[in-house]
Write a structure and sequence with these properties.
The protein has helices at about 15-25, 45-55, 65-70, 75-85, 95-110, 150-155, 160-170, 175-185, 195-210, 215-225, 250-255, 295-305, 305-315, 330-335, 335-355, 355-365, and strands spanning about 5-10, 30-35, 60-65, 115, 135-140, 270-275, 275-280. The protein is an alpha/beta fold. The chain folds into 3 domains: about 5-145 and about 235-255, HUPs (Rossmann fold); about 155-225; about 265-370, no CATH class. It has a 5-stranded parallel beta sheet with strand order 3-2-1-4-5. Helix 1 (about 15-25) packs parallel to helix 2 (about 45-55) and helix 7 runs antiparallel to helix 8 (about 175-185). The longest helix is centred in the last third of the chain and has 19 residues, at about 335-355.
Length: about 375
């Protein structure tokens, strides 16, 4: 029996929720443990979604909390907020990420080899959270390439070309092998101090191999990993090797609509400013006072959840310069003129996004900001 753990973190966001449903429905034989890391500052809608998922998945989602806070029987965020003497987390000092997300997750998995399923979509170009632990391996079921960047870098290393050709010879016909070999024999030119260029050249080679057969590439990578210390090296087989699904944002919403429903904070609410109408919503799950929120999301919180906005204000200390929104206190942000300006700016941004599909994906789906919200 395999000793490898299979885990999937649920943040309360649409992508992780959809991934949990997808894995349960498509790979029911996989013994996946679902978990939710509770910061103590989630929206009520997040907890409601967790409850609905509990019913749909047919197994209870494990709830994790920071160990020190749990021992002290205190709200996790407030416990560390006091420990850090009122110093609010920020993009420069994300102690909330480390203490409330990473540490509980790493304690939960211990030292067991672990496969972590992450809900990065097929229309996104990012990795999301990757554990720093060597015994944790990330898999991305929604993407054409299910493998993480560290695995691809290892597989496509110029020194491994001969080994890859040998592995492909066991997985593909001789006629197709000639084409694959031509692609593999072209080394990736590595230029010093050109990280982006090197990544682009690696991606180009990866995409060419995927075009020649996603499932075949997956089987080759799986055999390649047998000579490593990564968790999948211990598995005899892996259910996702033949997976060729690519799910994008529209697929995610359809999947949720047909099962547990879309989290309420994604529902767009109408607002009016200067005689013009627009809509706003929350773009991410996670803490209601997340410092990655856009200004319009703070306005959304103020108007849709005034009680939570008031609580967020109490954490700020302007004398010490501790504010959630960089360079602006929440008290100043909700001045009527400032709200009107933020809404007017949002209207302009929405018009720009609607005319540029790529920009829409990059800006509207801003959940990527917190690397460990696990989507």
């Amino acid at each position: 029996m395999s000793t490898v753990k299979h885990v999937l973190g649920i943040s309360g966001g649409k992508d992780s929720a959809a991934l949990a449903i997808y894995m349960k429905d498509k790979y029911p034989a996989l013994d996946v443990t679902y978990y939710f890391t509770d910061t103590g500052k989630e929206l009520d809608e997040t907890y409601q979604l967790i409850e609905r998922l509990n019913g749909y998945l047919g197994k209870k989602i494990v709830e994790l909390k920071a160990e020190d806070a749990e021992k002290a029987d205190q709200d996790p965020f407030d416990y560390f907020y006091k420990m850090f003497r009122g110093y609010l987390p920020s993009q420069q000092a994300r102690w909330c990420t480390e203490r409330l997300k990473i540490q509980p997750f790493e304690k939960f998995i211990g030292t067991d080899p672990t496969i972590s399923y992450v809900g990065i979509r097929g229309d996104e170009d990012r990795e999301g959270y990757l554990s720093r632990k060597a015994h944790v391996q990330a898999i991305f079921p929604f993407r054409r390439n299910i493998w993480s960047e560290d695995v691809i870098r290892l597989v496509l290393n110029n020194d491994r070309i001969g080994h890859l050709i040998d592995l492909y010879s066991r997985e593909t016909s001789s006629s197709k092998l000639d084409v694959v070999a031509q692609v593999l024999r072209r080394p990736i030119e590595v230029v010093l101090n050109d990280r982006m260029g090197n990544a682009a050249r690696q991606t180009e080679k990866l995409n060419r191999l995927l075009e020649l057969g996603v499932a075949t590439f997956n089987h080759v990578v799986f055999q390649f990993l047998k000579d490593t210390n990564l968790p999948l090296a211990q598995e005899v087989d892996f259910a996702l090797l033949d997976n060729e699904d690519v799910l994008i944002k529209e697929d995610i919403f359809r999947l949720l609509e047909s099962t547990v429903g879309i989290p309420a904070y994604y529902e767009r609410k109408e607002f009016e400013v200067n005689g013009k109408k627009g809509t706003y919503a929350r773009s991410r799950s996670g803490c209601y006072f997340c410092f990655f929120q856009q200004r319009i999301e703070w306005v959304w919180l103020y108007e849709q959840h005034p009680d939570l906005f008031a609580k967020a204000m109490k954490y700020e200390n302007e004398d010490e310069g501790f504010t959630w929104a960089q360079g602006e206190s929440l008290k100043d942000l909700i001045h009527p003129r400032r709200i009107a300006q933020i809404k007017a700016d949002a209207l302009v941004k929405n018009v720009t996004k609607s005319s540029n599909k790529l920009l829409s994906i990059l800006q509207e789906d801003d959940e990527r900001a917190c690397l460990t919200c696990f989507l």
